[in-house]
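Technical note accompanying the year-one report. For the benefit of new consortium partners, we illustrate the data format agreed upon in the data management plan: each record pairs a sequence with a structure-token string. No post-processing was applied to the example shown here.
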Amino acid sequence: MANLSLFTHPGTFKRMNPENLRKWLEPARGYLAGRGLALDGASGPIDYDRLAWIFMEPDGAMPRDLMHSASLVHEMSTENAMLDLLDGARRVGLTVDVGEDPDPVDVAVQVWLQAPAVLEELHQMHQLDRPRGFVHFVTDRQPDPSFDGPTAKGMTDLEAELADWFFHAKRGRHAKVWMYRRPGEYWFLVRHGLASKRQEVVSASGADTLIFRPGEYDVLVYNRKRGELRVHGCNPREVEVLRTLFGKHIFHDKDFFPGGAKFTLAPPGGRRPGLPGLR
């Protein structure tokens, strides 16, 4: 389920420019009206308390785009994330009205309104840079110095087989893989589902049950010079699946990185070992 906790306090919405807030909510006008919040006029008052209550007690009819964008804005509303958003906006030519003292929430909403894909991509980069523990594997083959990234077919086949594995593991038939090049390394971000959850929600009409599937991100890092693969997964079985399928589809050899971890190291003090300069 989308993380909506940031929006359960009226003060969060007051941090946004009212015009940006209205534009963000406009696609959900009908839903919000049904929950007792009317968006009348371009300058009329906004019932911030009612709006916070709607996010505090979401129901099954809440539009997916509203929930998804709220979750992205929530996770990109820190000061560091705002600086990355401003840099990203400049790179792609977006005009973000920040003034003298910008608020991270308002900046994130503006980027979503103009270019949702930019907010999505920068959110993915922040997922890469979260402190994580990795399991390390080293190939016993001769590392290929000419490796210049995976083929499109390799990425497609990797996604397809991962999706099939997650489906049979009762975590939904979805897997998406992104690749990012960094000096000397190739970083792969894998998004997939977790086990379904049920949550009771209460509204004016009574109680109901929402069934939803949380999302999670795994990370694989290939160091070309050392022939080393670092893997972060949700559990040891998932790490093993990531190791073998990465070798199979990226290097055409499921045992390119032999089983038996080189070592396992959790990040001390919130930093990843061996990666200076990364948050």
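Partners are asked to follow this layout when depositing records. The chain has two domains: 5-128, 134-265.
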